[in-house]
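G., the chain you wanted modeled:
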Amino acid sequence: MKVKSHNQENFKDVQSVSLLTNILASHGRVMPDLKFIDKWPNIDGFLELHDVNKNFLGKFEVQVKTLSKNHKFKLNCPLNFIEYCKMVPTIPIFLLGVDNSKSKIYWLLIDNSFIDNLNINNNKKTKQIQFDNNKFISKGNRDYIQEWERILIINRDKYHDFIENKEFYDSIKQNVNILTGDSKPFFPQIHAFLDELNFYLDNKLEIIKEIFFKNAWKIGIAYSECTDTSLGFSLYPINYDKNDIQIMEVDKTYYKQLNLKNYTIWFYGKENPILSNYKDLVIKLLSDYGDKLLKNKLLNYSEEFLALEFIFAFIEEFKTQLGINIRNEYNVEEIEEAFFKYLPIWTEEANSLLLSKNRYTNHELKKMIRINNLPVLDPGRMNWSISPEEKSEIDEKVKYRIKNNNLASSFYLINDKFPIGIFVELIGYLKNKKIKALKRFYRPKNYNRLTELKSNWIWHVYNYEDFKYNIELFFEKLPSVYNRLINKNFPNLLNELSLFGESDKIIVKVSFTEDIKSHFDHPTYEMFYLKAKNNVDKQKTIDVYINDNEIKLDKNLEEIEYKGSIYILKHWKWSVLDFIYEDTPMFNYIQEELKDKLKKYFKNNRV
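Predicted structure as tokens:
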């Protein structure tokens, strides 16, 4: 009988995993749990990241591949692994390419932003992947550690609600009454409720399931009470890899204890909406989740115009904390260097200064939270309480530490105005698109005009030419940016959330003056939503007129003549034009537009 032997690929597998394991162990920050000669199609194991004090920060799933001798930083990656990365993971996933001849391991984060930019041919089984030759692990290179720390923070920022609720889901499953085989009079209504909810999450609002119920196949219900006049329940995910039940019963007292911890639990004391109108309850729940999506900025914002707008605004907001001078053009490498090295050290030094000088109020100290035993710090808040002289001293300390490779210890960065996770996600998106030079497209605000004009009005930061340029650029880009965002986040609601709605054309009439003497002189705009009466104009466009009195449009008329054609006026609105003065005009405008359209969508679907 012939003894089964190993092929050459198995020996390469052992060599690659051994090299990775030994280097990571020598650095003392990442604990690997990897399998040799692993035939599982998706991942080879896990990497657990710890801080300098050996506190657990989080873990990654990894797929380890051996690179060919002439790899040129390229690898043919199995499509089933890419599909796994897109659909299943709740934690970050790395593809690791091992170059045994040079003792280097190249790493690549396979997230949705990266996958969205792949041109995948479904007729093939592999896709050629390009590694970044600057992102590698070796005996002498530990740069990956800090970047991996930030990736974990971004993941927590993006999926904060899911990660927090996962502890809740696990908890209730340990305290439930399993109802398999039971029969209760209200089960038919609960099943109808779950069918309706899962229909929307599978066919209309997949993003809600993606963000709040990551890795879910279907959604189940855990109720504490269900009577004619009362209902207490929560929702939980049923994962693809679990044979779980859809209805669970939980102790009422236990639920009330959990409710004190701000977990998402619904209580009704006068009625039971599942029994009275389950379809209306489904819409209400989806509306709540939709509001949370927008409020917490949880959409996929990977779009080039939005990315550049957000990144330039972020840099201007945190120029001191990043150590960057305001310019009209940057390259991605310098921004990453500033974010991953300068900003963390600056934040650490600033925090030490504020603590030593007792500049945090008791209220602020009480509000300071810790996640996984690590402090949560807001560099935006710190900047307010530090003098120019102290900022210069901090700058010198940061530069000295970077020069001596004395990087920051571990903590979580947060900022409500500019979520850290969005910033890094958008930088990664631009890198994946091979965009290296970032150029400003809006004309910048000129705050010197306020001094020159002895004015306190924000409207004076633009003269007429700059205002006109920015407004025309904004409305020129709005339809395409909006459509790309809808396609990414709500692909099955393209008509319902259309920017134009029933209209074929939008006319924007803007009133602007530089002669501002009171708040009544602020810029304003009207928007006329027009539908061609005789289907003569099907190209959806936005036309903008600034201080143009020759365009006569009357909001009180049902029909309007415009450029020789007759249009039906479908909608009209007027407002102060303030969005163009905000830090992220397009981002904020689309957020508000989506908020209104989702509200209308849910209202139209209520029973």
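Residues 525 and 575 are 6 Å apart (CA to CA).

Shout if anything looks off.
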